[in-house]
Amino acid sequence: MIKSFGYLVCGAVMIPSITLAGSTVYLYPEFRTNPTQFWLAFQRVYRVVKAGTNMALAYLTQPDQPMDDKHYYGALQLRSAFQQNKGLYIKFGQILGSLDIIIPEPYRATFEVMCTQNIETPFEDIERQIHLSTGKNIEDLFQSFIKKPISSASIAQVHQAFLKDGREVAVKIQHPWLKEQIDGDVKLISLFTDVAEFIFKGFKYKWLAEELQVNLPKELDFHGEINNAKRIKEILKPFPDIYIPKVYEEYCNDRVIVMEFIHGTPLSDILREKEKHDFNYPKIAHTISTAFAHQIFKHGFVHSDPHKGNIMVRKLNGKQQVVLLDHGLYTNLNEKTKLSYSLLWQGILEMNLDYIKQATTDLGAAQNYKLFASMVTSKRFSDLMNTSMNMSDRLKRPKDQDEIAILIQKAAKKHKQITIILNQIDRQLYNVQSRKLLMLFKINDFLKNIEFRLGNPIDSCQITYNYVSMVNYEDKIKKQNFLRRMMYKFRLMLHKVKFEILSIVMSIIM
Q1: Which one from 241, 305, 326, 426 is the annotated catalytic residue?
Q2: Residue 283, CB half-sphere, CA atoms under 13 Å: how many?
Q3: Known catalytic residue: 305?
Q4: pLDDT per residue over 153-186, tens digit each?
Q5: What angle (nearest 5°) sits at the alpha carbon of residue 440, between those of residues 438 and 445?
Q6: Would you say residue 391 has pLDDT above 60?
Q7: Whole-prediction pTM value?
Q8: Following DSSP, what letter does each residue of 312-335 receive, concatenated?
């Protein structure tokens, strides 16, 4: 009897251990010859499997417990695993923490704290990373190099340095081992979502793992970030109050970027202590909104990771400038999606139900056009179509926490429909463009938040309207005969003149 019990205990310990080890070998084949990295990978697998098991048990074995309580418990289990795993898991947690309405509120609120969580790599590892990626030591490349990073995030950290010729630079260095870990970590998260979908038929979040699979390799290849910076610098050239730092490509590679150092104030500091800074706050909001409207509606090439730490403001020769940083992740909208999205916004702003229905049909959400419009704007559809309210009031951000709480409660009740819409869009737009729409939802919320906190008198609604109406006019021109094209061009010219006059008036007022 004792001997049988011993075999049972031995099996209970060894079988899961062998399974986890086998899973680690499968997920991380590149670490088979590196014992240290293999052990770290084994621990990451163990934490995710443990969290997933605890979550499944909570959802399946406690039928009387309120669903929100289960969500909070599951979110805490998952967040704990992600925080201990670090690396790309921090990035995934930050994505979850930024998805208003789209995921259950207990998960979003629990993961929101990870949006400000920083990982700092020790300087000795940074030295080694620079040497491995460039073949040179720090002292061979730089006149001086500040050991303490000025900022750190999930993918990389930034140090201040001076080149041999005296130029002051910011050096962005990727955290070690991230690129080697990515395939295994993404496979593990994909396996987690696959198992969850198999067990829970209502679970429809595989697109989150697909989001990582598509975007993380782009963010980890710094050559892509360099190319994005050059392209967006050209796109925003018409706007002298927006600046993109210069990249010194001769010092860069796939894990290190050396760029012009900018002396400015992070937007996060400005928002936290507005009274301490001497900036024109409404103009900051106006500049940011114009820059993103130009990217989205004019070019379909959009900075897709905007947050308060990626934007700085500076005074140069007495003039205020907004500096846009971190160009690792951009969204490319194809022409059809860009036009449909523009038409949707024109329909919302003009309260044109036909435009809204047509656009949502093109975007794959025809049967849920009201809810889709609410998802885009974070407003009730009845408010969007309220003829007694002006454009700004119909779309303004909730003025207090009570209004926000009401919206969250309504979103929770519609959560099943929201996931259905996301999957409808996913099929209609063949995955890639649907994920890009999710990025646009995030950008919309960011812009409204900035505008609300900086107090812009001419809000982003008017800026958006100017762009979408011009884009849609230009599209209509292409489809008409000669006479109609001339009429449309004349109307477009008048519209552009109006837009230019408004911009000049705003620059004088501000």
Answers
A1: 305
A2: 21
A3: yes
A4: 888 999 999 999 999 999 999 998 888 788 888 8
A5: 100
A6: yes
A7: 0.78
A8: EEEEETTEEEEEE---S-EEE--H
* Least confident window among 33-37, 62-66, 440-444, 505-509: 505-509
Q: What is the 3-state secondary structure (H, E, C) of 213-227?
A: HHHHHHHHCHHHHHH
What is the greatest pairwise CA distance in the chain? 96
Classify each residue of 390-416 as buried b or exposed e, where b means 16 or more C-beta atoms within 10 Å of its C-beta: ebeebbbbbeeeeeeeebbeebbebbe
Domains along the sequence of the chain with CATH: 2-115+181-210 (no CATH), 120-174+221-261 (3.30.200.20), 331-509 (no CATH)
Two tokens, residue 37: 């990295």
DSSP 259: E
DSSP H or E stretch at residue 143: strand 142-145
Mode of pairing for the β-strands spanning 156-163 and 242-243: unpaired
Tokens 């697998």 sit on residue = 45
Query: What residues contact 423, with CB distance under 8 A and at least 6 apart?
Result: 204
Contact in structure between 346 and 339 (CB atoms under 8 Å): no
